Amino acid sequence: MASPAIQASGLNRWFGEGEARTHAVRDVTFEAFFGEMLYIEGPSGSGKTTLLSMISGILRPSEGEVKVEGRDIWALSPDDLADFRLHKIGFVFQDYHLFPRLTTLENAAMSLVMRKMNWDEAMDEARRYLDVVGLKDRAELPPVKLSGGEQQRVAIARAIAGHPDLLVFDEPTASLDGDTGRRIVEFVRKEILTEERCIVLVTHDSRIFEYADRIMKMEDGRVKGFEKGHARAE
Amino acid sequence: MKGILRVAYKLIVNDRAKFAALLVGITFAVFLMTMMTSMFAGVLGKASSTVTNVGAKVWVMDPGVNTVASSIPMPDYVLDAVRSTNGVRYAVPLYSSAALVKLANGTYQAVTVIGLDDASLLGRPNLVEGRVEDLYGENAFAVVRDSEYPKLGRPKLGTEFELNDHRAVITGIAEVAVSGLFGIPTLYTTYSRAIQYIPSMRFTISFVLVEPTSREAIPGIQRAVRALGYEALTAEEFRDKIATFYKYQTGLGTNVLLMTVISFIVGLSISGQTFYTFILENLEKFGALKAIGAKGSVLISMILFQATFTALTAYGLGIGLAALTILAAKARLPSYAATVTLANLGTAFVTVVIIAAISSFIGVRKVIRIEPFEIFRG
């Protein structure tokens, strides 16, 4: 196994105060490695998304530490943290969050444009990633003209366009039918995961477990254990 | 930053329904504001037309006078006193009043008659037909060829008509810089003929026109005239006094102010609400951008750019529409009083900037407050 991409230790997160306080994540410690596809699995309300938010620099933990590539991300200033997310992390959201008024190509180029890359260069680069996800011929269409699976692939193109070391997927198959969901994750496993990249994927869809290296089981905010994914078992 | 502003531009422009609603709202507000303030500026310009056309540097009048048309006759000694004041190079009387002209077809037409000093004809208009000295001829009048000229049946040199039951002959056709406010033709004649033809009170001098020896002499002249119980105003001060009268004592200014405020509220309501809806519809996307790594300053610049771009485009459209409307109205109605001034443009611009600022403030507040975590949580 390669070096750790993520080192989370003693992570706790609660919301609210007093009697209304909810403990969403409790004492979570784990590592995720480069070249690994790690699933966070558990029932609704088990703290998966809260944990994903904390390790990707979006939600500050109430307690604990998150190191990405050895760097304590929560010690960074808000602006530095935003820069860190922009350059190091690629996000794929459950509902894709593509801009309907932009073309597929412009959506895919979003993180490059945000990195202040020249517009034409960003479009050329994004076109290459649309090619990777098999949507080059759909570049000029608005996302609403695409199917759910295609929109998910545009979101993946947007996430990988900036060559991030860490990719986080939030329930990538939740809005897709079974076959499309499997194809998307299979594609991610085969085409996107590299030895220099770590993918953390939140899901409770057992149909895609075959593509995981490890599956971290969560319940009531706690890590209940790790299972080897089918990909690793092979 | 350039690329992200291009994204902001595409987001607002490609949302055609909202962009159109924003443009219509602000354009309409700018159009209304510009039309109202331009009409007001036009009215004020025409209300001071005699002051502009006569061109005297200092005007002496009764302190109760608010406009040229509402002159209060002064006794002759005022003219003598002014002439003997230090700093006065020369001073002449001016008569201004209304009269009735009976046209050849038997109809009556109200006119303004301006009586110029017999000796100097100071304040005479530029004659485009006829000779100045012909104004000394029997029953002689010069008519101003402006937008009201057709109301006298387009008289030519030698045309005769009755003025207050006296015979009058056109001996000159003149042009002036600004035509009058009240939509009636203007005739020029000598002072003595004017007071002979038009019934008047014991006192007959409407204004005393003063040529000072220098600009520095004017304050001294004003003090001396004030001591007489009258008022001496420079042409600029007199125009200001007329403007103040129309602004604050006729209700005209209040109406214009009200319409401007209403236009502002209409523009703000439409654009504010539409822009807020636009932001709400894209809020999750802005949140996603924030999650991906957009700093608050980037999102603020996107929203400010969208609001500014929309507001300035609508400002240009509104001003253009107002200018076209005024041009069209002037082509059909030569006496139409509307002038687009720099102050009008500035007022509309400031208002549009405020509309854009308030609209974007609402959007910025919403976007800054969204937590990227909410995007993950769905």
Short précis:
The complex is a heterodimer of chains A (234) and B (378). With 234 residues, chain A is an alpha/beta fold. Chain A contains eight helices and ten strands.
Approximate helicity band of chain B: 40-55%
Rounded radius of gyration of chain A (Å): 17 Å
How are the strands of the largest sheet of chain B arranged?
Answer: 2-3-8-5-7-6
The string of secondary-structure elements of chain B, in order, is: HHHEHEEEEEEEHEHEHHHHH
Shape descriptor of chain B: elongated
Annotation field: number of helices of chain B = 11
Shape call of chain A? globular
Strand line-up in the sheet with most strands of chain A: 6-7-8-3-9-10
Category by helix and strand content of chain A: alpha/beta
Number of strands of chain A: 10
Q: What does the main sheet of chain B amount to?
A: 6 strands, mixed, barrel
Total helical segments of chain A: 8
Task: For the record, give the distance between the C-alpha atoms at the N and C termini of chain B, rounded to a whole number.
Answer: 29 Å
